[in-house]
Amino acid sequence: MSDTSRPITYADAGVDVHAGDKAVELMKASVRRAQRPEVLGGLGGFAGLFDASLLTRMQRPVLATSTDGVGTKVAVAQAMDKHDTIGFDLVGMVVDDIVVCGAEPLFMTDYIATGKVVPERIAAIVGGIAAACEQAGVALVGGETAEHPGMLEPDEYDVAGAATGVVEYSDLLTPDRVRTGDVVLGIPSSGLHSNGLSLVRKVVASAGWGWEREVPEFGRTLGEEVLTPTRVYAADLLRLIRTDGVDVHALSHVTGGGLAANVARVLPQGVAAVMDRATWTPAPVFQVIGELGKVPQLDLEATLNMGVGFVAVVPQDSVDTTLEVLESVDLPAWRMGEIVGIDSVDRDRGELVTGSKGVDAGGAQLVGQYAG
């Protein structure tokens, strides 16, 4: 029988509001760096404030919004007790989806749910989010840390975020810009990014490997390789879009569903992107995971990005300038394929992927074998 004579406090229920306050104090400096001139007020308000008067200078401003998390990559961060990079994964998954339509991400908020607030850990997570926002030119205007004792273990947490951007209606990147004869350019990923980690974790567990295992192909531990932060592309791709002599017809963020499915989503009906695997060599992590788990190639490609973080579709006369701009921001892109009429696709060369994410759009096909 429980003792009802003693008062029960919030702390007795497992929630430490003082730890939450300390976490906010620890993260203030990093959040201050992730600002824009339009931000009003400071950290700690009930809502983040952003001066939207810049929209009045636009003829037909269109707001773009996106929300996402990082999936089970947080489990690897927790196993490695390394929490200062997962924020890059979160920001990349959110703001880079906004850039796909040509919009500039303006501000972002985050949400962290944890079994127990450890101020230093929360500050490390938010520090990574703030650093990535700073890199992307996005303001981190607010967030929430929630303590969920009994639902999450003390060392467990999950993260999510949402961002808003804006684009002039006439500058929207929509599928109708794409034409047959356009060139498909691959833009490299920094590694696994934040998709397919459930497959990776299953393969690793089945092989009996630990995250601290040194892997010669990586030159570091398995955990360090898997925790490589997601590349945040927003600022660099906005620079590309705004460069004279460049005419971007479409962009695709290669996330859940793999390369072909995400490219198909941004193409109009009646066309397909035919992409040659021989034009690039995926990083060793993709081969190691594939071989370790005997994962079928098509399943691997439908789950992981295979070394391609973004795809740009441009007309022939924009290819050289596009490649030069991307090279200048340390994104050595390459020509990986072209846009063709979907009826001309030779389906004997590879699977034609269509209808991804419920979008009635174009198609995409991977052909050949990877280089190297």
Automatic annotation (TrEMBL):
It is an enzyme of class 6 (ligase). This is Phosphoribosylformylglycinamidine cyclo-ligase. GO terms for biological process: 'de novo' IMP biosynthetic process; adenine biosynthetic process. Keywords: ATP-binding, Cytoplasm, Ligase, Nucleotide-binding, Purine biosynthesis. Pathway: Purine metabolism; IMP biosynthesis via de novo pathway; 5-amino-1-(5-phospho-D-ribosyl)imidazole from N(2)-formyl-N(1)-(5-phospho-D-ribosyl)glycinamide: step 2/2. Belongs to the AIR synthase family. Residues 59-167 form the PurM-like N-terminal domain. GO terms for molecular function: ATP binding; phosphoribosylamine-glycine ligase activity; phosphoribosylformylglycinamidine cyclo-ligase activity. GO terms for cellular component: cytosol. It catalyses: 2-formamido-N(1)-(5-O-phospho-beta-D-ribosyl)acetamidine + ATP = 5-amino-1-(5-phospho-beta-D-ribosyl)imidazole + ADP + phosphate + H(+). Residues 180-341 form the PurM-like C-terminal domain. It comes from the Bacteria.
